[in-house]
Amino acid sequence: MRDKFKLRHLDILIEEDPEKRDTSILMKEILGYKQSFFSKTKWFLKNFVKIKEITNEIVSIKYEDIELDKEHHIKYPAAIDHISYLQMVNLQSLTNSPNDFTMSEHMARVIAIATYSENKFSKYEPESESFIRYKNYILESKMFSMIGLYTFIMDGLEKVGKSWDEKFLSVEVIDEDLEAHGGEQLQQFNIINTIKTICSDFNCDESEAWHKSYYMVMSNSYSKAYANYIQKQIQITKEAQIRSKQIN
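Below the sequence we write its predicted structure tokens.
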């Protein structure tokens, strides 16, 4: 019975007020209810309670405990930072604004962005008909399989984000002059600057830059940050030696 639930049914199931939960759709699509005179009397009375019991049972499940369905045919990247820079930017933007869509639409978009290239063997273009069809296909896929995949992707995003944050913090060089003059305001231009850097470092145009691997982009940025960190440490050491000689 669980396999009959599609991801788009999730919005009905998570309705907090049971009286507002549109179980009529579930009765039609899960139990096969048809609006005939016979079904309205005999079938309806028999199965109305049944669908209520099923929905209550499913609602009680902790969705974060649903495991990844490795047998499902939707492929996913081995590591989430292997997706393109464009995919990651849009994925991070989406996950930072979860209330912009219904829950099922939000989850479908997250899954579609993260897995599009793995399954369609083409570059991710968020406004393309191909991507929209793929996202709608996910909405029609098995709900529990999609919840497991969504959780897997979100866990991957958290781990990857933490990993890169730790790497960059370990080589962070604070420019006090820049900070004093509002350097934090420059963060909003980070994406634009990153694209320009990709174009320069990889000798490609902007359209190609967006589709470079996020891992490649971050590795390149880390390499530069590490080199800058080493140079700064050398500078600090030399300045300390000069001061020491002056004191002596």
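DSSP finds eleven helices and no strands in the chain.
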